[in-house]
Design a protein that fits this description.
This protein has twelve helices and 15 strands. By secondary structure, the protein is an alpha+beta fold. α2 crosses α6, α2 runs parallel beside α7 and α4 runs antiparallel to α5.
Length: 482
């Protein structure tokens, strides 16, 4: 997989080791790893002195061999039934996070399984299954296998809550494939006029030129609403982008999700759920650029270009503290993205992806009580730990469903399980956009996510179905493309 073209950028890996994801971080990241002293914080926008001759900040970076391919064995949901469910559970305003008496609705969506529509914690506590962590306060959370789609445990999975900047995952999944990253754009006053007061910003300025690549760094690392608004303008405007995102959410069967503002800024009726955010993250991780951006720890962003002078750049860092190990949070071993958020109405939200011993998990946590410092990260880490221990023992309580187009392409509208061979499989969702994401190649093995050559890649066209593991043909031959 090719590295993003960022000046003075390096791969997130130790010398001589393959990385789970190749980000565009500077060598010698200033963020601490366990057992090392942190580098002093540098104020936003200030000049940063980058270490020279330093090793990467990460002791281990998700190195592993090829994960076995997968064989589908799930119930596919017909699109007509999904539209009915969508109408049955319309978007409504959620309670504010400071309302301690807020309770999940008595009836929630059952997409992914009936138990996921139930309030409270859902887990199959069978023999050998470790107990869930005690300190879990998130209003909604989910632990799922990113490859086969098994939901290992969940709590109010379909509770519609404000998502904050985790909504940017859907923005990126929708818009990123449309815009060439080397395209340049001159920013206007109008494009920045709608950025909400108090927004997180990367520092985009009017009358300055940026590449699409620059702007995506601003979205993924700094959670820059200014960058989102400029990219939305390049996509046809805010209204068009919101419509595109809502259509994409429906395609992904993320039917708890309703977009009002593409940057996740608090707005009436802007909602998602832990289940939906996990679906969206899983979809985004199919795209090479999405994976690289969300795994990037730090980079340089263009400053103001003054007449007769060379354009300056300033350092930016990823706001995902499990990735950076910043602000009192230990970097989580094996973490590789995805996105955090925090607003007044949403509280703290986070979706993360991590790998351990060849298994890739997704965890989403929404609005913990905040009594613990960095609670959304701490609770995510606890759920990752539990998930990696429980994955081989816990029977799933539900599944991450495939997109509508994958269901239609498979030709199964009956909802009956398909235990047939995994060869062939449905075309990727999203037409040409998904085809671009699927450029990793296919040998006819239907699979959602796999790791080849040390990189998380989309292997083939038969994606997003729940699968049963089986060995890859020609494993270890190097015949697959990354």
């Amino acid at each position: 997989m090719n590295q993003l073209h960022t000046p003075k950028a390096s791969r997130n890996q130790e010398t001589g080791r393959l990385s789970f994801i190749r980000p565009v971080s500077r060598p010698g990241s200033p963020f601490p790893r366990r057992g090392r002293e942190p580098v002093a914080d540098v104020p936003f926008g200030a000049a940063r002195t980058w270490p020279t001759g330093a090793q990467t900040a990460f002791a281990r970076t998700c190195t592993f061999s090829i994960v076995p391919a997968l064989r589908k064995t799930t119930v596919l949901v017909a699109s007509t039934a999904l539209l009915t469910l969508s109408a049955a559970f319309p978007a409504v305003a959620a309670e504010k996070p400071d309302d301690d008496k807020a309770k999940p609705p008595g009836k929630m969506s059952e997409i992914g399984g009936a138990r996921l529509g139930q309030a409270g914690t859902q887990v199959n506590a069978g023999p050998g299954v470790p107990k869930l962590p005690k300190k879990l306060t998130g209003r909604s959370w989910i632990v799922a296998d990113a490859e086969n789609g098994d939901v290992l445990a969940a709590h109010n999975a379909h509770w519609k809550l404000p998502p904050a900047s985790t909504m940017k995952m859907l923005f990126a999944d929708t818009v990123l494939p449309k815009l060439p990253k080397d395209e340049e754009h001159l920013v206007t006053d109008e494009e920045l006029a709608g950025v909400g007061a108090g927004s997180s910003l990367v520092g985009v300025k009017e009358d300055q030129t940026y590449t699409v690549h620059d702007l995506w760094l601003g979205v993924f690392l700094s959670s820059g609403n200014d960058a989102v608004h400029v990219l939305s303008a390049m996509n046809g405007g805010i209204d068009q982008t919101v419509a595109d995102m809502n259509a994409r959410a429906e395609e992904l069967q993320a039917l708890d999700t309703h977009v009002v503002s593409p940057d996740g800024y608090d707005a009436k009726g802007q909602l998602s759920s832990a289940y939906d955010l996990t679906l969206i993250a899983r979809s985004g991780m199919q795209d090479k650029d999405f994976r690289e951006y969300c795994a990037t720890v730090s980079a340089e962003f263009p400053g103001e270009k003054k007449k007769g002078k060379k354009r300056e750049h300033f350092g930016i860092q990823n706001t995902n503290r499990l990735l950076t190990g910043a602000y009192g949070v230990e970097r989580y071993e094996g973490i590789a993205g995805v996105k955090n958020g925090n607003t007044t109405n949403a509280g703290a939200t986070f979706t993360g992806v991590a790998e351990r011993n060849g298994r890739v998990l997704l965890v989403t946590v929404m609005n913990p009580d905040g009594k613990e410092s960095n609670a959304v990260y701490q609770e995510t880490a606890r759920l990752f730990d539990w998930g990696f221990q429980a994955a081989e023992k816990a029977e799933p309580v539900g599944t991450l469903v495939p997109p509508v187009s994958a269901v239609q392409a498979d030709g199964d509208a009956s909802g009956a399980p398909d235990e047939g061979a995994a060869g062939g499989g449905p075309a990727p969702a999203g037409g040409g956009e998904a085809q671009a994401a699927a450029s990793g190649g296919s040998d006819g093995v239907g699979t959602a996510l796999a790791v080849a050559g040390g990189s998380l890649v989309l292997l083939g066209a038969g994606v997003y179905v729940v699968n049963r593991r089986r060995p890859l043909p020609g494993r270890g031959t190097g015949s697959r493309r990354g």
